[in-house]
Amino acid sequence: MLEVLNHPLITHKLTQMRKKETGTKDFRENLDEIAELMAYEVCRDLPTRPVSIETPIGPTTGFELSREVVIVPILRAGIGLLDGIRRLVPTAKVGFIGMYRDEETLKPHEYFAKFPSNLDEAIVMVVDPMLATGGSAVDAINAIKKRGAKTIKLVSLVGVPEGVQAVQHAHPDVDIYLAALDDHLNEKGYIVPGLGDAGDRIFGTK
Ligand SMILES: O=P(O)(O)OC[C@H]1O[C@H](OP(=O)(O)OP(=O)(O)O)[C@H](O)[C@@H]1O
Ligand SMILES: O=c1cc[nH]c(=O)[nH]1
Ligand SMILES: [Mg+2]
Q1: Measured by CB atoms within 10 angstroms of the end CB, which terminus of the chain is less buried, N or C?
Q2: ipTM for the predicted complex
């Protein structure tokens, strides 16, 4: 399943991020706000269970989330989506996976992994602003499945058909959410038109 979240607020904020003159502070703030808006949509189908409660007026049946949510940002750039999602799901646990893409081969390399226990019972959101070749997302999901995760959602800001197809081919069971589906990758593996190097723009490197 691929869902492109076409919402005017998301598109407006993403446009600010795409502009080359947007600095680190505004880039980060817009990303944080988009993360919150995307989380609202991504969480739309979270399972709930009925609970008997008492309001000040009397008894009723309410509904509470019935499964734990685990957010897994792909370091570094995925960190930019973490706080916005956590504001909506403050009880979520957080795992981390560090991946960098070799600039020549475009192949991802894992350099860090730390996950909470019981991934098998959780709804795991893998988050990374950019879905380019899809190599980083595919490997991150492999690592999470190896630890038992069964229900996985991939939340990215900007993707291209190549990356979407790579994830769908390797992990047909994973739902993919994007804020925009861009055109193609250039010869250096950057998304066109994209927004440049997300990690560098979030953290002010380069
Ligand atoms: O789909 P892919 O072709 O694998 O490319 C996407 C990856 O590239 C970027 O990370 P990068 O390697 O620049 O690391 P960073 O987050 O530390 O900047 C981005 O944040 C993704 O993780
Ligand atoms: O366009 C791209 C592709 C990969 N990683 C980024 O940060 N940007
Ligand atoms: Mg980067």
Answers
A1: C
A2: 0.98
